[in-house]
């Protein structure tokens, strides 16, 4: 099984005719994703040519709105490749249409916009699960990809992965390619995001095919500390962790996550201590984390 995305998911791409949308639509199709169309109001009624996983030519319809795309195709997932200035409007359009899963890849979305679109999603009933922004998306190997994660890193297996960092998602998938993954989800490192570590942990705990979990965090904020509390109270499956930023100087703003470390709060050391207090083994490097995962997996396999 998997979480949030599977072979039956019907995916549309907001921004399908743009450069990034075009490139990654092709890669999602090659990964086996059931991409059923895209959205660009200025090019509604046209089609875009692609090749599916079997090598067959496909013509994907371009719709004027998410609602129209959903009504025509039955889409339940949207992946947004929209410039930062227009991301909030695109997200609200998808939320108002009632899409089940919205993956926002865009980097550089203003925090105010992210907060407002998230508040809108909650105010309208929380029907739309949001992943991102500023994230690589989600992949269920061998079934579907909604985002930009390279699909050839690893195959299907019993490990669940949730990560703040895109590149560390890819590295951990490669490190554990001998085991494989049920689902790998990159939640993004922005201050305001949709799906959190805790959301993913809860879903992996409920997924019978996921036998062990890797959680990757970063300095800044308290998301990992809150995840540690959740793990201690609710997660029965083995969890290993990695926290990027052990060598970061205190008080320094770090690029990727915009993380600010103040005192002990938000430091890698504080996060490691919180996770270890919850029974999570924490590696100092991605490779050490992968080794720890193999060890704990052997105990449940």
TrEMBL record:
GO terms for molecular function: nucleotide binding; succinate-CoA ligase (ADP-forming) activity; succinate-CoA ligase (GDP-forming) activity. It holds the Pfam family CoA_binding. Residues 4-109 form the CoA-binding domain. Substrate binds at residue 170. Pathway: Carbohydrate metabolism; tricarboxylic acid cycle; succinate from succinyl-CoA (ligase route): step 1/1. CoA binds at residues 17-20, 43, 105-107. GO terms for biological process: tricarboxylic acid cycle. Keywords: Ligase, Nucleotide-binding, Tricarboxylic acid cycle. PROSITE patterns: SUCCINYL_COA_LIG_1, SUCCINYL_COA_LIG_2. It comes from the Bacteria. One of its GO terms (cellular component) is cytosol. The active site is at 256 (tele-phosphohistidine intermediate). Its EC number is 6.2.1.5. It catalyses: GTP + succinate + CoA = succinyl-CoA + GDP + phosphate; succinate + ATP + CoA = succinyl-CoA + ADP + phosphate. InterPro entries: Cit_synth/succinyl-CoA_lig_AS, Citrt_syn/SCS-alpha_CS, CoA-bd, CoA_lig_alpha, NAD(P)-bd_dom_sf, SUCC_ACL_C, Succinyl-CoA_synth-like. Succinyl-CoA synthetase functions in the citric acid cycle (TCA), coupling the hydrolysis of succinyl-CoA to the synthesis of either ATP or GTP and thus represents the only step of substrate-level phosphorylation in the TCA. The alpha subunit of the enzyme binds the substrates coenzyme A and phosphate, while succinate binding and nucleotide specificity is provided by the beta subunit. Heterotetramer of two alpha and two beta subunits. Belongs to the succinate/malate CoA ligase alpha subunit family. This is Succinate--CoA ligase [ADP-forming] subunit alpha. The gene is sucD.
